[in-house]
Amino acid sequence: MAVDGVQLLEHIQTPAMVVSRGQVSFANAAAKALLGAHIAGQDVRIAIRDPRAVAVILGDGGGTAKITGLSVGGSVWEIDCKVVGNAERLVTLYDLSVQVSVARAHADFVANASHELRTPLATVLGYVETLMNPKAGGDEATRERFLNTIRHEALRMQALVADLMSLSRIEAVKHEVPSERVEMVALAREAAGEFRAGGTVTVTVNCESAVVLGDKGQLSQVVRNLIDNALKYGRKDGEVQVSLEATSTGWLLVAVHDDGDGIPPEHLPRLTERFYRADTSRSRAAGGTGLGLSIVKHIVERHRGRFDIASRPGAGTTASMMLPLRLG
Is the pLDDT of residue 71 over 60? Predict the structure, then answer.
């Protein structure tokens, strides 16, 4: 391979090697960092210990050959081999870990969403079929009970579809930094005032005004979601405390605390995962979709903020977000 071509390969970030007569005659810095500096001058079968990759590199066919599934450094890689000269082959490696991870996450998401919809749908269909049978569920009390169950499951599906659509909209704009001026003190008080039953919601602030750049609708959704969660999982008819604190370092801390049973520590790292529930039966009984905290996390990250959940069994739970203040 020409000298200028080799020099060019040295400056690219993609791992690349030149293989001549079965040996690695050149490896750029990225390839050495991935496979080890010792690969230069080494037999390619030792440098890359994967029979499928070696078969592609040493095969008789010309042109471009690709192979996926090569495991190097704990990642998934693709090998691309081109014949570039007399008995020389240019081998490049592309990290597919992100694509594989995204594909797996998408498949898991679809499977979980399908499962979450299938369960209430099966209940609805079962009760409807029973009601359609004149020999079953004929008395008024039974019909009323069945219809209430159907309504409950239909509302559960409606909430899940609404959250799925909300999550989709948020992900569609996650790379767009919102620029609307939002007054968070007024927003928090307005959101807290929407909850009239199930407990007391109090708002405390250390500032008269706290302006952030954001999407007012999304930030309102975050505060409402956190208050709703606190009321659902806090003590019955208990108190939910919403506090806003503007810090001297230019951040706004918004925290929502409930007086419930708390969450075991092993669940805390996974609470923002889609469809993850610390207590599945309790969450479903309370009408939870398993997407609320995932939606909150995505919104906070879009606003260049930080989201955290702190809890101890018996001491309640505090969900908080830090948002950069708009100064001046």
Answer: no
